[in-house]
Amino acid sequence: MSDPTYRAGFDAALETAINTALQYDPATRARLQELDGKVMALDLTAPKLQCCLCIEGDQVFVRQHWEGDVTTSISGSAISLVRLLKDPDATPAALGVSISGSSALLAELQWMMSDLDIDWEAPLAQLIGDIPAHSIGNVLRSAGSWLSASLSRAPVAAAETISEEWQLTPPQAQFEAFADDLAELSLATERLEARVRLLQEQFSRREAE
Amino acid sequence: MKDRKTTHFGYQEVPVEEKAGRVAEVFHSVAARYDVMNDLMSGGIHRLWKRFTIELSGARPGQKILDIAGGTGDLTARFSRIVGDSGQVVLADINESMLRVGRDRLLDRGIAGNVVPVQADAQYLPFPDNTFDCITIAFGLRNVTDKDLALRSMLRVLKPGGRLLVLEFSKPESKLLGKVYDQYSFRLLPFMGKLVANDAESYRYLAESIRMHPDQETLKQMMEDAGFVDCEYHNMTGGIVALHRGIKP
Fold this sequence. Notes:
The structure holds 2 protein chains of 2 kinds. Chain A has helices at residues 4-23, 26-33, 78-86, 92-95, 104-114, 121-128, 130-165, 172-208; strands at residues 39-45, 48-56, 59-63, 72-76, 98-101. Chain A is α+β, with helices and mostly antiparallel strands. Chain A has 2 domains: 4-119, Nonspecific Lipid-transfer Protein, Chain A, CATH 3.30.1050; 122-208. In chain B, α4 links the parallel β3 (64-68) and β4 (88-93). The model of chain B has no long low-confidence stretch (mean pLDDT 87). At the A-B interface, α1 of A face α3 and β8 of B.
């Protein structure tokens, strides 16, 4: 068995990160308070990790051992769980996540995560003052939106570069025309095959007569 | 004439009736700087050891918990939140200075209402039979003069099904770690004690008392002999510290 000190350290770090972030989103903290006493048991399959998230007041406590009642149990990979929590319209079955117990807690957490609005400027302002923090915030926000836009454009841009510039693959339109021709050829071949079969049957009948 | 009964105080042999007084002197001396020294000596890891202890306690709202040798109230503060208004946490310590520091610290943090400080000797706990759902003693058992008597006293005041958790320094699992730990304990620890708390002797006693404390298997056997069942222990940080858990049948 691994040393419990490491696991306790991981849980403590995760707990501190969650609660520190919550400090700067009062609206989410207030909504969390309504879930006081609820417990979500997580059974992560990749990476392999089990823990319980216990909501006490407006804080979340991460526990490795929990012997009390569990409101909702969730099992799946970490990536699936993050997707599930970030997207209120996502369904557990589509992401390969299994749930037992009350699904209301999950739904509430999904809505909370989609509305999460952490004011990262606040802790920075405490350290360096309001005006510098706001300036840095603006720069980071611009950089963030540029990065986000670039990332969303990245797959299309990469595909264009590979086919148009490097000519490693055919352009999409050419590929689609080729695929259509191939499908047409396949159908024509099947039709021809059917005709040949029909002719064979007719010849066989005549020979028998 | 019959010889006087003795016990160990660190590496010294002292008459049994003297040990409690000498341990008390040590803790009177270190009480004011106890938390700072704990953080410094363990690099803050004592918080993780205590965190694991609280998890294994299985504490619930409404329960009654006894935190023996509660010192400056680390465990009590967390238990107070868990048991809530319907529960109760008794912060017990034999040492008046430690208890006063703990009580004041809890009050300063707004922890009150369900916490009762009690000056009590672990060997003769002043509570009725079957009172508590859980008892913890963190880094305190090695300072008790008669550990068997203390374990029996704890068993008496626990409710049937209640659990005892003993968090205490123990024996490192690896020889290499043991050697490094010895160097740290006997050279660096008294030096830090001198530097921060201006008290090298108390911290030398700390290192010696750890070496004289029963190892993991011996303590487990002592708990079973006292009447606890399903006894088990978890080594932490390579066995430098062990958490023993036993259940009252």
